[in-house]
Design goal:
119 residues, Rossmann fold, 4 helices, 5 strands
Length: 119
């Protein structure tokens, strides 16, 4: 299973579901750095130094950091999805399909909404 570092904006219910799936996840709050406006490059550096891939909803900035350097242990960028268990399942699948994560950028997006509505 993956060692992950969840950025401050990442939903706790998804973190908990990923832990149940067997992933080792550390959150910003657990490091005592919550609400400190920590620069994204330092967040990624912390994750790398602690042998963890980063997981975040902050797609724009972390995609940019990945483009600048792939010297990290993985970045997983996600779209917000209120279906936390579904999101956790998609993340778990992406991790399993792409292991090892080192130097990779994974995008895990919310599935498109169905255009069919029940009557």
């Amino acid at each position: 299973m993956a060692r992950l570092y969840a950025n401050e904006n990442f939903p706790l219910p998804v973190v908990e579901a990923l832990r149940i799936a067997g992933h080792d996840i550390l959150t910003v709050a657990e490091t005592g750095r919550a609400e400190q406006s920590w620069p994204d490059d330092e967040v990624l550096q912390f994750a790398t130094q602690n042998h963890r891939a980063l997981i975040t909803l902050n797609r724009k900035h972390f995609i940019q950091l990945h483009r600048q350097s792939s010297e990290h242990l993985g970045i997983i960028v996600c779209t917000f999805d209120p279906d936390f268990s579904g999101q956790a399942e998609r993340i778990d699948t992406a991790i399993r399909d792409q292991t090892p994560l080192q130097g990779k950028l994974l995008r895990v997006n919310r599935p498109p909404r169905s255009s069919v509505r029940p009557e």
